[in-house]
Amino acid sequence: MIIAFWLIFEVAFHLDVADGHDHHHHHHHPRVIITEKDCAVRKHTLQGTHSRVELLQGPRHRTLYAGGGGRLFYLDFREHDGKEMPVFNCSNSCSRNISSCDYDITLLHECKNGSALFICRTDRTTPVCCSASRETGFCDECHPEKAVAPVSVHERAPSLYVGEELYTTANMVNGGNHVGIRRHYGHRVSIWPSDNVTEQNYVALVASPRPNKIQDRIYAFLVQRNADQHREADLWVSLVTQVCQADLGGPKSFLQRSWTSHLSALLSCGIAEKKLYFNQLLDVAVLEQDIWKDSMVYALFSNGWGMTAVCVFTMGDIDYVFTNSPFKGYMGTVPHPRPGTCVEDSTKLPQDVLRLVKDHPEMKDWVRPVNNSDPIFISHHHQYKHIRVDRVNSSLGDSYHVILLTLGSGRVHKVLEQDGHTFVIAELRPFAYCCHIRNVLLQPHTKMLYVSSSSEVVELDLRSCQAYGPRCEDCVMARDPYCGWNGTHCAPVTSSAIQDVKHGNPQLCTQREYVPSIPQKVKRHTAHFLSCPMLSTHATYIWYHNGTKVESLVTDSLCLLLIEAMDTSMAGTYRCNASEMNYAKVIVEYKLSVESKAQGLAPKYLLLYLLSLTLSSMLPQDL
Ligand SMILES: *[C@@H]1O[C@H](CO)[C@@H](O)[C@H](O)[C@H]1NC(C)=O
Ligand SMILES: *[C@@H]1O[C@H](CO)[C@@H](O)[C@H](O)[C@H]1NC(C)=O
Ligand SMILES: *[C@@H]1O[C@H](CO)[C@@H](O)[C@H](O)[C@H]1NC(C)=O
Ligand SMILES: *[C@@H]1O[C@H](CO)[C@@H](O)[C@H](O)[C@H]1NC(C)=O
Ligand SMILES: *[C@@H]1O[C@H](CO)[C@@H](O)[C@H](O)[C@H]1NC(C)=O
Ligand SMILES: *[C@@H]1O[C@H](CO)[C@@H](O)[C@H](O)[C@H]1NC(C)=O
Ligand SMILES: *[C@@H]1O[C@H](CO)[C@@H](O)[C@H](O)[C@H]1NC(C)=O
Ligand SMILES: *[C@@H]1O[C@H](CO)[C@@H](O)[C@H](O)[C@H]1NC(C)=O
Ligand SMILES: *[C@@H]1O[C@H](CO)[C@@H](O)[C@H](O)[C@H]1NC(C)=O
């Protein structure tokens, strides 16, 4: 077993080198580490521990609802105020049947045009759904809803409220019956999937509204057990499927109350020349554009080698495959209207159209990333879990995309995307102790990211810029589109701020920062150390004594210079220089002189201190 693991790592490592990705590693290592101490992190503790945490934006900025095991919380991060909503208060009489309070919230949406909450819970046998007042949390209707919510708290089962209709997904219910997309409530008929397909795990449901409402679609993103049983074939494949929102199911005789517009296509992500493929979809984030075809789907994949990648698809490309690809396994002429076309009354569709949808719903062509591109981001070592994407305007008015990726270890990577290239701006560490991230919610208006563990919800301000350092150069080199130099601080960007997202060129900073030389007297024969903060992991930090390079000790965040015993030859100017991208700057400078009386920090304690710093920096970074 251990040997097998070792082999996998060994092989993965060699792959790495063979791929010639070495020069990329630098850029895939976050440039700056930001801990919860460096930025204003606001937290709410959720009572209890929750294996699933559902997050929903609240009625006001910086408020949200969080549903964990059996409890719904309303969290206000402006007031640092949180309260439990009584929806599932055991003594509250809304659902008399369930006497036990041992259940989990599995689904949380806004409904009734934003005036109410729709919330489901499961006790692992019977899911119950209620609509509840958004203000008070009191429920007015609760129903057992086996078809709507997952029975197991561990089933991801993404769902989506569009207007008055709820779309849900089912991976496995009662041994695999009716796996797929369902529609409930609203004015149209409820629709169930007809098929009894192989194992599917749904990752995301996305609405794609069109100028002509009849053409509105829902896309589902999922992984499915590969039907290809070939020994070298991957266990899973990733798919996108479509249904029309206008779908009313087939006529009485065929596909009644089942989708007549359900098609699927495989998603491609990888580098063909290198035979490097990513087959397992992990998460999806959509960046809306004014024109629906341009809206971008950022998809996070993994492969069997423990690597992850991000590929970008456009809605237009997905739509093109569904409207143009040949049908897999079908040679005949394609009937009219083409199966998958959204029509006003699907119950009147001709038999041959319905037959083709039922028998050959899979497209022959794959959906490829935009402009047939390679993955925009590949990581060899990090196990990313969630992806979110934000659009940020720079000081010059051009817009950038920032990708937020969560790690299994409770950390978040903030990644700049620019013309298909990526740069890892920072690693955010919102939790004092490592934990699993259960869920993430981005509020693009306030530029706040909410990250939940099993017991806390943390608010991260994506515009907390001070962490990059006290100087203009630090701010510009950070290449963070949210941040610019306002003349005195690194602060949320404005049109007058100094910023260079494209190149991070610090030469733009006209004010030269004067680094004072700090005089220090050190007693003869005593030990002493000088420390230099390392703000960037991409920079090289070097200590110079009278202009000559000297040995230093590097910890997690400090470059230390150790003087074992002070004497006259150790006096003089000590300067810590950082160089990054052919740009060197002085970080700190000390002028040391000898004070004759021997006393001060004994070498033994100094060494212990240094040892503790070194040990702390050697703790695992990414579990
Ligand atoms: C639950 O309901 C009871 C009775 O209606 C009430 O006294 C109690 O305060 C409620 N608890 C919460 C947390 O709302
Ligand atoms: C809930 O209780 C009502 C009345 O006691 C009963 O008619 C109904 O069948 C019960 N529902 C479930 C799911 O047990
Ligand atoms: C939902 O709310 C919006 C804006 O508040 C309103 O324009 C729309 O008519 C409402 N729709 C329904 C179905 O009530
Ligand atoms: C679906 O598959 C399950 C297990 O393979 C089987 O028991 C069930 O009868 C099937 N249902 C239909 C409708 O084909
Ligand atoms: C795709 O290519 C077109 C034409 O070269 C270009 O205008 C567009 O920006 C590219 N799209 C992306 C997302 O790179
Ligand atoms: C970014 O700029 C565009 C056009 O200049 C504007 O429409 C949009 O509202 C801006 N977005 C933000 C978040 O400021
Ligand atoms: C720059 O930003 C800092 C921190 O946000 C703020 O205190 C200061 O007033 C700003 N200075 C200017 C000139 O806007
Ligand atoms: C460095 O300069 C100081 C003062 O100029 C001198 O005392 C010291 O001996 C020099 N040390 C070395 C190693 O050059
Ligand atoms: C350190 O940086 C300063 C400022 O950029 C530069 O003038 C100096 O030559 C550098 N020192 C060394 C030894 O590289």
From TrEMBL:
<keyword id="KW-0325">Glycoprotein</keyword>
<dbReference type="InterPro" id="IPR007110">
    <property type="entry name" value="Ig-like_dom"/>
</dbReference>
<dbReference type="InterPro" id="IPR016201">
    <property type="entry name" value="PSI"/>
</dbReference>
<dbReference type="InterPro" id="IPR015943">
    <property type="entry name" value="WD40/YVTN_repeat-like_dom_sf"/>
</dbReference>
<feature type="domain" description="Sema">
    <location>
        <begin position="31"/>
        <end position="462"/>
    </location>
</feature>
<keyword id="KW-0472">Membrane</keyword>
<dbReference type="InterPro" id="IPR027231">
    <property type="entry name" value="Semaphorin"/>
</dbReference>
<dbReference type="GO" id="GO:0030335">
    <property type="term" value="P:positive regulation of cell migration"/>
</dbReference>
<keyword id="KW-1015">Disulfide bond</keyword>
<comment type="similarity">
    <text>Belongs to the semaphorin family.</text>
</comment>
<dbReference type="Pfam" id="PF01437">
    <property type="entry name" value="PSI"/>
</dbReference>
<dbReference type="GO" id="GO:0001755">
    <property type="term" value="P:neural crest cell migration"/>
</dbReference>
<dbReference type="InterPro" id="IPR036179">
    <property type="entry name" value="Ig-like_dom_sf"/>
</dbReference>
<dbReference type="GO" id="GO:0071526">
    <property type="term" value="P:semaphorin-plexin signaling pathway"/>
</dbReference>
<dbReference type="InterPro" id="IPR001627">
    <property type="entry name" value="Semap_dom"/>
</dbReference>
<feature type="domain" description="Ig-like">
    <location>
        <begin position="506"/>
        <end position="593"/>
    </location>
</feature>
<dbReference type="InterPro" id="IPR002165">
    <property type="entry name" value="Plexin_repeat"/>
</dbReference>
<dbReference type="GO" id="GO:0030215">
    <property type="term" value="F:semaphorin receptor binding"/>
</dbReference>
<keyword id="KW-0732">Signal</keyword>
<protein>
    <submittedName>
        <fullName>Semaphorin-4D-like</fullName>
    </submittedName>
</protein>
<feature type="signal peptide">
    <location>
        <begin position="1"/>
        <end position="20"/>
    </location>
</feature>
<dbReference type="GO" id="GO:0007411">
    <property type="term" value="P:axon guidance"/>
</dbReference>
<dbReference type="GO" id="GO:0005886">
    <property type="term" value="C:plasma membrane"/>
</dbReference>
<dbReference type="InterPro" id="IPR036352">
    <property type="entry name" value="Semap_dom_sf"/>
</dbReference>
<dbReference type="GO" id="GO:0045499">
    <property type="term" value="F:chemorepellent activity"/>
</dbReference>
<dbReference type="InterPro" id="IPR013783">
    <property type="entry name" value="Ig-like_fold"/>
</dbReference>
<dbReference type="Pfam" id="PF01403">
    <property type="entry name" value="Sema"/>
</dbReference>
